[in-house]
Every structure is written in C-alpha cells, then in structure tokens.
C-alpha cells in the first residue's frame, strides 16, 4: 500500500484547486465533470492533491496539514516571498536545533508549512 492522494475538503473546490495549481504547477482534472471533486496531479512527485466539495467543512484547526521541504539550492526567503505574493498568509516561524519552518494559511484557510528537508 502507498499514499496516493491527500484530499482537502472545501465548500467550493474550484478556487482552492486553482490556487494550489498556480502555486505548485501540475494539471487539474475535474473528476466526473461536476466540479465537486478536482485532482491536481504532477505537482508533487507520487502524490496527487484532491479537492472535494463538502456541505460543512470541519471547523477549527486542521487535523492534518501539508509540509513542504525546501529543495537543495532553493533560497528560503525568495520562496517564502513568492508564497506570500501568491496570497498565502504567514502565521508563524519556528526553529529547533537543525531545522526551521514557517507556517502559512492559503487564502481559504488551509494550513501548510515550508521548512528544511526532513531527511
């Protein structure tokens, strides 16, 4: 068994999926053609991001969140600035010995982090 997709529940999948596609690249597919479930593929090697329409998303803090690692040679501040420019809101910066990461929310409230590689 392997993890193939992480799905975000939302009231309106199209703008959420479009925002993530703009940020990460990849291809969006409207599964079933109803606009109720979209899949972003090719943006994260081996993992698809799903965006599902739900009538009542879980309120409060996300039970899970997305962690993105800086790639070798990627300049931290330039990447963080591009994420802010795309509309993400910076929430916090954390540091422990040997690792640091920044917490963001996308324009729709989804929490995600960008930090040092977890290797």
Protein architecture, described:
The chain is α/β, with parallel strands linked by helices and 119 residues long. It folds into two domains: 1-58, Roll (2,3-Dihydroxybiphenyl 1,2-Dioxygenase, domain 1), CATH 3.10.180; 60-119, 2,3-Dihydroxybiphenyl 1,2-Dioxygenase, domain 1, CATH 3.10.180. It has two helices and eight strands; from the N terminus they run E-H-E-E-E-E-H-E-E-E. The protein has helices at 13-24, 76-85; strands at 5-10, 27-30, 37-44, 47-53, 66-69, 89-96, 99-105, 111-115. A four-stranded mixed beta sheet has the order 1-4-3-2, covered by helices on one side. It has a four-stranded mixed beta sheet with strand order 5-8-7-6, covered by helices on one side. The longest helix has 12 residues, at 13-24. The protein is globular and about 45 Å long. The relative contact order is 0.19. The mean pLDDT is 90.
Q: Rough shape?
A: globular
As a whole number of angstroms, the C-alpha radius of gyration is 15 Å
Q: How far from one another are the termini?
A: 22 Å
Structural class: alpha/beta
Strand order of the largest sheet: 1-4-3-2
**SSE order, as H and E?**
EHEEEEHEEE
Name the CATH homologous superfamily of the largest domain. Answer: 2,3-Dihydroxybiphenyl 1,2-Dioxygenase, domain 1
CATH topology of the largest domain: 2,3-Dihydroxybiphenyl 1,2-Dioxygenase, domain 1
How many helices in DSSP terms? 2
- Could you give a short account of the major beta sheet? 4 strands, mixed
- CATH top level of the largest domain is Alpha Beta
Q: Kindly state the mean pLDDT as a whole number?
A: 90
- Count of separate structural domains: 2
Query: Roughly what fraction of the amino acids lie in strands?
Result: 35-45%
Helix content: 10-25%
Number of strands: 8
């Amino acid at each position: 068994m392997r993890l193939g997709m992480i799905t975000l529940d939302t009231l309106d999948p199209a703008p959420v999926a479009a925002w993530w596609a703009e940020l990460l690249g990849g291809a969006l597919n409207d599964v079933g053609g109803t606009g109720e479930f979209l899949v972003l593929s090719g943006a994260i090697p081996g993992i698809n991001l799903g965006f599902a329409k739900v009538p009542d998303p879980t309120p409060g803090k996300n039970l899970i969140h997305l962690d993105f690692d800086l790639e070798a040679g990627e300049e931290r501040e330039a990447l963080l600035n591009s994420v802010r420019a795309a509309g993400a809101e910076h929430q916090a910066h954390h540091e422990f010995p040997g690792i640091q990461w920044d917490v963001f929310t996308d324009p729709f409230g989804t929490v995600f982090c960008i930090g040092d590689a977890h290797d």
